[in-house]
Amino acid sequence: MTKTNHGGNNNFREGLTGAKISRFLLLPFQPKYLKAYLAVKRFEDISIDHLLKDGVEGVLLDADGTLGPHHTRHYPESVVAHVRQMADKGLKVAIYTNSSNKLFHQFAGIEIVREAYPKPDPRGFDTAMKDHLQLDDPSKVCMVGDNFVTDGGAISAGMRFIYVQPVKGNENIGHSFTRYLGTLCARLYYGDLFKNQRDAGPSTDNR
Ligand SMILES: [Mg+2]
Known about the structure:
The chain is about 35% helix and about 10% strand. It is built from eight helices and six strands. The protein has one domain: Rossmann fold (3-Layer(aba) Sandwich), CATH 3.40.50.1000. The chain has helices at about 10-15, 20-25, 50-55, 75-90, 120-130, 155, 175-190, 190-195, and strands at about 40, 60, 90-95, 110-115, 140-145, 160-165. Magnesium ion (MG) binds next to loops.
């Protein structure tokens, strides 16, 4: 694909885009776009075997708040090992972040989505899936992230969404507040999913 940085500079990617604003405003009224496939406490709690059993072929991973704290320069070894295990077990894996943090040297061999519209723009998920996972069926792709407003846009793109409880960090108050409201909406509609947040295995019942 062309090397255009879709969606503008990094500050823009992390700030309020039109896609973020419209998704945020519509979320309370469109519960189907809040229906996660699974909710877990930590990224490492995601059972790779269950993903494979459920027909998942590729995963897109958010970075900030999901794999580590906001703008971290170093990810926990347990997280790096789990990402590597996903790839070793046959899943196609790519990191898809809106962050300006470009230090992913710990994830050698893992695709990094750098040239796509920022989440939750559906065009960004499509590019990430096709160009970085080499897949063309969104129902076989899982987005893993801590934010129903941005990462949860994967649901509108036809993908499954795994919600990870945010890793504490120093993100700005606007970011944490919109993320909190997005999760609150999801909890109101699908509270049972969060009761099982510590369970390791996803179930097709949650789709
Ligand atoms: Mg995040």
